[in-house]
Design the sequence.
């Protein structure tokens, strides 16, 4: 499975050291969004899931889009990611 991660957040891009990145996950054809976000790690050892969520919900200061569709805070657990999906992370203004 190949996923494109777009960090439209200065804070997230600073932590990651990049703005956009293709991520190849060969072991699974589909996964929960939470699993995928946990796999996106930063140089300091933290991960994207910890940055934008408080466990099972998107934190109030963040927006998450999967293929252009906004993920509501409480839908993070049920959201699924498949091959060739684009994920956008943004700060709420």
Sequence:
């Amino acid at each position: 499975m190949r996923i494109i991660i777009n960090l439209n957040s200065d804070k997230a891009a600073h932590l990651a050291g990049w703005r956009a990145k293709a991520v190849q996950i060969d072991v699974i054809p589909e996964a929960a969004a939470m699993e995928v976000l946990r796999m996106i790690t930063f140089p300091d050892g933290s991960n994207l899931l910890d940055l934008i969520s408080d466990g099972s919900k998107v934190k109030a200061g963040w927006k998450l889009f999967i293929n252009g569709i906004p993920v509501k805070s409480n839908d993070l657990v049920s959201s699924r990611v498949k091959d060739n999906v684009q994920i956008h992370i943004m700060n709420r203004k």
Summary: Helices lie at 10-16, 33-39, 48-52.
